[in-house]
Every structure is written in C-alpha cells, then in structure tokens.
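Progress against Task 2.4 (sequence-to-structure conversion) is shown through the following example record, which the project officer requested during the mid-term review.
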Amino acid sequence: MSKKFIFFILISFTLFACKKEQPTKFDILILNAQIIDVEQGEVTSNQLIGISQDTIQLVDDMSNKEMYDGTEIIDAKNKFVMPGLWDMHVHFRGGEALIKENKNLLPLFLAYGITTVRDAGGDITSSVLEWRKSIAEKKLDGPNIFTSGPKLDGSQPAWDGSIKVESAKDIEPALDSLQKLGVDYVKMYDGNLSKEMFYGIIEAAEKRGMKTTGHMPLSADFLKAVSLGLDGSEHIYYIGKACSPLADSLTEVGLGYGMMVPIVQSFDMNLADSVYEIVKPNKVSITPTVHVVQTLANILEVDHSNDSILAFLGDGIEQTYQRRIEGAIRAKERGDNTYNLIYKLGLNMITNMYKAGINLVAGSDCGAFNSFVYPGESLHSELFGLVEAGLTPQQALSTAVVNGPKFFELENYGAVKQGKIGDLILLDHNPLENIENISSINTVIHLGKIYNREKLNAMLNELREEYN
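Structure tokens generated for the chain above:
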C-alpha cells in the first residue's frame, strides 16, 4: 500500500470525522436552563433547549452542549424556563375611536409573559383580525390571538358590535357571519338573550364543529346547556347556580342577578360535587375570573389613581372605567353587594372544581370598561387569587399554561418539550415555590423573537412616552 494512498485514507477519515462532529445548529439555543414542568410541578436542572422555526426541536442535558450551537444563544443560568402564559378572557373594544389604544395594549401582554390571549368579543373585530395576522407574520409585537369576533346577544345587546339573535331564524345567519370572519369560537352574552336562543346557538354551533362559551341567561339551565354541547362558561356564577337546590324555583320567579343572594346562601357542596361529575366528562372549561370580581367589588374602597400601569394606557380606555364606577355607586345606594357574593361563591368552589378534574382556565377579563383590570398585570393577579382560593402554585399555573390549549384541543402547547411551540418565559425565581415569582420575568421568547428585559422595558417606555 503506497504512502500516498495511506495519506489519502487518513485525510478522508479526518474530513469525515470533522463533518460528522459539526454541531447541530438552532435558531435559538438556551443553555443552563432549569425547566419547569407545570403539569407535574417538577423542575429539571442543567438543561439546554433548541428552538427553530418557532418550535422546540430539542431538549437535552448540558453535558451534551458541544453537540449544539445557536444563531442566538441565551445563557439561562439561575433562571427558570416555562411555557408562556395564556390569558383566556380579554377584551379589545371601545369602537373606532379606541382602536389605536387597544392595539397599544399588545406589548403589555408580552411584558407580563403572556404569549397567547383569547379575545372574548368586542366591537373592533376587523382590527383584531388584522393584528392577529400581523403578529403571526411577525410584523407586529404581541401575543397570539384567538377571537370570538362579535358576541351573540338578544334584541337589546348589552355591548356594541354584538349580533342580535332574536328568534330561531337568526341563529344560522349569525353563525354564518362568524365563520365567514374566521373566528375561533362563539361567545354568547346574556344582555337579553333568551334561554331558547342560548340553547339553539349551542346546538347549531355543535353541528358545525364550532366551540361555544360565554354568559348564560339566568333563565337557562346550566346542565341542559352542557348536555347540548356547551364547551365553556365565563365567570363562576353560572355553574354556581346549578349548585343551589333553589335553582329551579329561583328561575321560575325570574329574579335575574337578584338570585345571587339566595344562590350563595343555599350553595350545597354535595350537589356541587354531583354537578362537577357531569361537567368533567363533557370537557367544559370554566373561567373563574376571580380578580375582576374582587376588583369591581372593591372599586369604591380602593384608590387606583396612583396605579403605575395607568402610565401605559390611553386616556380613552381610562375614561371607559367610569362606567363601572358609576354602576358601583348606584349599586351601593340600593344596597346591592352582588360582586362580593360572587367573589365569595368563587372562593367556595374553585378548589373542589379543580380536584374534580374540571378544566379551569385563567382569564383576567381585562380591557376597556373593566375598571382597573389591567392587561398583563391582571392575569398575574388572577393567579394570585386562585392560590388564595386554595389552589397550589402548580395548580394555578396549570390554568394559565396547560388548560388554555385544552379548550382549543391544541396539543402543541403547554410544556417545554420537543415538538411543542417555543413560546417561553425565563424567570428569575421559581413560581412553584411562590406564585408571586411569576412576576420575575427576565426574558420572553415568542414566535422566534427574543424579548429580553431591556427590550420589554423599551416597549413599555415607548408607550409611556406616547401617553405622557
């Protein structure tokens, strides 16, 4: 064998070995991560995460670091990494005059680690759909948006922009219009929607494969709605009504929200357990919204004038807050403490609903008109409230990470694992130990973009400068 041939073999082997040992490269490589498994409540240390094309391509141990590289590298030493938060009840609304101020809310969600929101209906749907498209195309900074488009209500809708469903003949055209818009689900509202139309919308939407949630007319029966295919219920009081042995008689009297006093007073834990047993297998998601209820219950007692987040909101949205304040003044004059009763009801129900396996989803109900319930911050407060109601930090986090995607039957969210969407947040402290640590946000990764603390602060400062 000639020396030239041996030299050729050695060179070929060396080149092959070098080529084989080239590290796998990702768009984003996160090193030294402590990964939080929200569903199991566990932390795995010394991990690295490779993200490309918005998807987690790899999770591996740091001992294999030399095998990987990244176009952008994040050292997450002493940081905790978990999926981005979902706020399952927000509102973009207020008409054409408030479109820009609503659009300016989008960075606030990212600043608080919220990478996905579910818009629960308003009157600026065309704009919301434009934002959704621009965000998906990475032309606009903001969370993923799922939207119901306009609400479905009765002949006298409670909110502008709603579609009137007065009789059975209105149901199919209403759903046609929503499908034409390309909405993600159907939101019903109880301005004066009749129970017959409520049931009819659920049945018709079920046949079309459209998900339904919203407010239930208090003349309706919650469990009947569940049997017809209801997918969700916003706020705690509709399922709460089903847990009162007086529900049928109160419905016959027609008290409306005046039935809250006897419902809370007659709440029956054993009856509630039987209701939960029916709700769970039907996979109905419940959005408790404890923070907004508590905020509105105390709106006349708490001075919000110095709330720091007001600096990031436009005057138009802040002016809409007056509607709730005026309503609270009228309620106080007539001795109406409905919000306090609803808050008490929620505290009594949340832990047992979770233990029963009901899909609780975290929603803030933030947006114009819901006074001092601020985008971003309010979801954190919702999680604090769920813990106050008796959930563990892990359970509360599940409502904002794992359970939201379940409503939409999406399996590619909710965990830091290969194949999952790479919307992540990096925290300075562990929220499993203390739920308030969810506010220690260091970095947000969304749609392949890295928002470090400096960039997040810059977005907020831009808003502050615009309004001040």
